[in-house]
Amino acid sequence: MSERQYSLRDETMLDDPIIMVEVDTSNGILVPIYDIDTGLLFVTAKGDSQIRYFEVNMEQPPYVHYINTFLSSDPQRGLGVMPKRGCDIGLNEIFRLYKLHGNGRVEPIRFYVPRKSDSFQTDLYPDTISDTPALSADEWWVEKKDVDPILISLKGGYQAKSAQTLTVAKKSNALDKMPMKGRDTSAAVNDMSDGGSDDSAHENSAPLAPAPVKDHKLLEELQGEIKKLLKTVADQDKRILVLEAKQGIKSERKSSVDEGSKAAPKENGAH
Fold first, then answer.
1. CA–CA distance, 148 with 135 (Å, rounded to integer)
2. Residue 264 DSSP code
3. pLDDT in tens, the chain (271 residues)
4. Cα(104)–Cα(102) distance, rounded to whole angstroms?
């Protein structure tokens, strides 16, 4: 068992935590799940049956304020998060987790903020991350660009955009530079697709020869190890017989010295 803690740190001074709080004692590794829109922090672990949640407010010390704990009788194997776009804003649902049980069942866990008003709650739903990427793969990887994500308002509900047609551009990579192994059959396939006969394809193709036996040295080493093992067994049997004779014990065991000496020629014969 080990102590489990959570800490709040400045990304420029990771060695000096702003706060550090001991949670409990257990073997599971705590996993933080942070909602950037509301500042809520959910802390749990695989195998736990509870989910603690806090509010992170950098204007009010001690900055991480405990709210409550969700308790369950069944431990979880894992957790998934629904994006804020999928939450039910009409019921003031601010967060949703998906709990994976040991039998494979998935249970949704919803968190609500009760309000009397039915209007859109601006403080609960600030602009959130949209499903539109802010950068393309080339802009991020090749051009090394770094921009903030595109935000959308959830007022009126999330409206999914129509499916876009994706264009796949094939680009060269490291695999294209690797040498081809074995016989290249692309020429034969092209000939057949152009109307060529199977006979012409067989004439142009090289005969397949059986793979030569490699690593003769390895085979010899294995045979040498077998001989050493047989000699060791024979020596041990001989010592046992000598000790039994000294103790006056009549043994019905047969010495394997002769058997070991006979086994070696068999190995040589097989070689």
1. 9
2. H
3. 589 999 999 999 999 999 999 999 998 899 999 999 999 999 999 999 999 999 999 999 999 999 999 999 999 999 999 999 999 999 999 999 999 999 999 999 999 999 988 899 999 999 999 988 999 888 999 899 999 999 999 998 888 776 667 777 777 776 777 666 554 545 444 544 455 444 444 444 444 444 445 567 788 888 888 999 999 999 988 888 888 888 777 655 554 444 444 444 444 444 4
4. 5
Provide the β-strand partners of residue 99.
79, 107
Determine the Cα–Cα distance for residues 271 and 267; give it in Å rounded to an integer.
Answer: 6
The CA–CA distances, whole Å, from 212 to 116, 185, 215, 271 equal: 82, 22, 10, 17
Assess whether the previous peptide bond of 32 is cis (omega < 30° from 0): no
Contact 185, 205 (CB under 8 A): yes
* Run of H or E including 66: strand 64-71
* Separation of alpha carbons 232 and 225, rounded Å: 11
Q: How far apart are CA 171 and CA 115, in angstroms?
A: 53
The first and second tokens of residue 52, run together, are 């603690």
Q: Alpha-carbon distance 246 to 71, whole Å?
A: 72
d(CA 221, CA 225): 6
Closest CA to 205 of 191, 219, 194: 191
